[in-house]
Amino acid sequence: MWAYVEGLDLSTLLDQIKAVPGRPGQPAIDPRILLSLWLVATLNGVGSARELDRLTEQHIAYEWLCGHVSVNYHTLTDFRSTNEAFLNELLTQSVATLMEQGLVELQVRMGTEDAKTTYKRRASTAEWANARVRNWGLYQVAVRGLEKVRAVALLFALAHNFRQTLLLKRRLAAA
Q1: Distance between CA 47 and CA 33 in Å, rounded?
Q2: Nearest CA among 93, 91, 92, 98 for reference residue 169
Q3: Domain segments of the chain: what residues?
Q4: How far from the centroid of its chain's Cα atoms is residue 57's Cα?
Q5: What whole-number distance in Å separates Cα of residue 11 and Cα of residue 16?
Q6: For residues 134 and 170, what is the distance between their CA atoms, to the nearest angstrom?
Q7: S-S: 148 plus which of 10, 33, 101, 143, CB 3.0-4.6 Å?
Q8: 51 band by pLDDT with thresholds 50, 70 and 90
Q9: Are 65 and 40 within 8 A, CB to CB?
């Protein structure tokens, strides 16, 4: 996950940091840490900032991602809810990358015979993704406000795309 996040253009998030070294106040937490934590948590069915906060202190994988940086639930919540636009753009880029690599195709719904055939396979594609998200724990969104709900949904979509990309690449390499 860390390698994936390191490869992303996070300049939008980095430009938001207003902390200045050598001045009073806490140094800013690197957005790569926060994004990695949320993506790993999402893959593991953790949607609560408080639960993720606990994991950063009790689970070795989350501790490793933090790298001795202290993270609290309020920071995690703020990151998720204030970066909905960035997460949306990141999801768009991930789908574009999958298409560019020939791993997926997007078709206009019912516009062609191929699209109609694809729609019939919905149970094994879109419904499967929805089931996976439910298995990860998204039965009910525990945040309030449209932007926060979108951010949660975008994290789940990004985690799904990340996992599918890895699986598709492995299949292509084995073929």
Answers
A1: 16
A2: 98
A3: 2-174
A4: 21
A5: 9
A6: 25
A7: 143
A8: very high
A9: yes
